[in-house]
Amino acid sequence: MATLIPTFSTCAQRMTSGERRLAQRLEDKLEADYLLWYDVPIGAKRLHPDFILLHPLRGLIVLEVKDWKLTTIQQINRETVTLLTDAGMKSVDNPLEQARRYTLAINQQLEQDRLLVQSEGRYQGRLAFPYSYGVVLTNITRQQFEAEGGLQAVLTPNLIICQDEMYESVDDYTFQRRLWDLCTYSFGEPLTPTQLDRIRWHLFPDVRIVSKQLSLLPDVPEEATAMIALPDLLQVMDIQQEQLARSLGEGHRVIHGVAGSGKTLILVYRCLHMAQETTKPILVLCFNVSLAARLRQMLHAKGIGSDRVQVRHFHGWCGELLRRHRLPKPSANEFQGTAYVEAVVQRVIQGVDADIIPAGSYGAVLIDEGHDFRPEWLKLAAQMVDPVTKALLLLYDDAQTLYGETKRQRFSFKHLGIQAQGRTTVLKLNYRNTEEILALAFAFAKEVMTPTEDNEEDMPLLVQPQSAGRHGAKPEFIRLPSFRHETEYLAARLEQLHERGMPWNEMAIVYRAKWMAEQVYDRCQQAQIPVEWINKDKDSQFYDSAAPSVKLVTMHSSKGLEFPVVFIPGIGYLPNQHSTPEGEARLLYVAMTRAVDQLVMTCDRPSEFGQRLEVALRSQKP
Ligand SMILES: Nc1ncnc2c1ncn2[C@@H]1O[C@H](COP(=O)(O)OP(=O)(O)OP(=O)(O)O)[C@@H](O)[C@H]1O
């Protein structure tokens, strides 16, 4: 069965009946290595072919679909068709010409990529795979078509697929043959997975992942791809991510994705999409101040301003609602610390219940790192979604729960007003970390975290991540005589890496206790290493990932962030005695999975977590 993007159930409603039939035939009668897109805009010009097919051997096929009957067509020439419709006569483009133009535009775009064209021979510089186009006439049989000389004269017969050639009863091979016949030539060499990804990169700018090499051109315009040498590795969402992102559609959606599986990526895509769909403001919520800052930067890079999408950390948003609706804040004398923060949340909940704060005021609500939200917060967030769009997206990974009680409270999404059943997707593939880092983090965490039973909505709560297969250096765990030695070692490694070309802002030190950060900070200052201590105090709330400084960040605040190099000092003091071993294990798991390429941990004394790490490291392949 071929893969249709978006999924059939999410686009069937906007399809014509002929398109629906064709989509079902294509899905059913083509094999799993066919990719199909329905009505997905292409390139910067946002061309809208009805269907695009992509296959390693058969190449690219563009299809326009028309539900016309013979009696509908009043006149036809190479450029236009005059149709008799309920609203009178209407002139439209000749669909074959339209399909040809789309194909030509795609062709021109793809020919700019040296890895997609023939490198030698008579056709040097031309696409290295077949491409073709056609028109599907879903209500005209071949016999009717052939009986109409006028149609045949302007619609090349072999580029037309007729009603009876796409009946359900047509066998798979005959149906496929009809498609292949759209193209008069074929090449021996199938497209490689890398080439298929490059084709998607060119066609669909919205699923591009900005690589470091292209970071100066976040969304490379079509004209520019010809002028710059494209890197060999162009990254796009994988097919599951793309299908999910494009199929989110209406209603509530829940995505359970392991660390580094692209949840945030999908959230940003969804924001872009919703910003075009709704005029109401869009709300993005997360728990962390630092993650909120990263999300803002990511959205900004995609050209989405704060006027369209408001990114807030949950408690900041609650405070803002009280101010906006002139509700009194709790008294600071009565409540302190977390009790104060909770009292703010309660006032907001009461404000919504009393209709002082209007529910349903956001066109969409998207929650990142939802595992850190208490049930009543999720309920509140769900109430804020416009009941017309019902656009609620909840992303979570139970393995990263940091702020819950000892064990995450069991609750049912249904009771919170979140329709998760049948609307939950699991993403297992981790793209962020090297296989070595991920294997260590999971081996360590699975020993300590207790997987809980799936709950009533069939949501797995501890998903084993799978690596996307990138390899790198083995994580390091180094014993030193004292914490002072740890800080000196760390400073020396930072300097060494920087001298070898690693930018300061691509390195982070993730710590568990404030005293550790103080010593590390002092040591870095002495060594004149630029260092930014994120969330050091209330006034340093905003962090700039691009500023040329090493980031010093708590394990809690590191959630949702990532850095090529991560140092974790003070393993000798873990688990922290003031928390539960399980909670501490989740924290260290989160910290370790922030490292994209290199992970260095240090300790100055034996500890339970140190021992576990050593065992896990020893079991890794050399
Ligand atoms: N298909 C992909 N191909 C290449 N890189 C990808 C792909 N999907 C995601 N990534 C990269 O993997 C990294 C992690 O993605 P992202 O931050 O969206 O994951 P996440 O699920 O939100 O992680 P976490 O829960 O740990 O914060 C990012 O650098 C992202 O660009």
Task: Describe what this molecule looks like in 3D.
The structure is a single chain. This protein has 19 helices and 25 strands. The chain has a six-stranded mixed beta sheet with strand order 1-2-3-4-8-9. A six-stranded parallel beta sheet has the order 14-13-15-16-12-17. β6 and β7 (88-93) form a beta hairpin. α9 runs parallel beside α10, α12 crosses α13 (337-353) and α15 (435-448) packs across α19. The model is unreliable at 213-220 (pLDDT under 50). The site of adenosine-5'-triphosphate has 19 residues, from α10.
Summarize the entry for a quick read.
This protein has 622 residues and is of the alpha/beta class. Helices cover 34% and strands 18% of the residues.
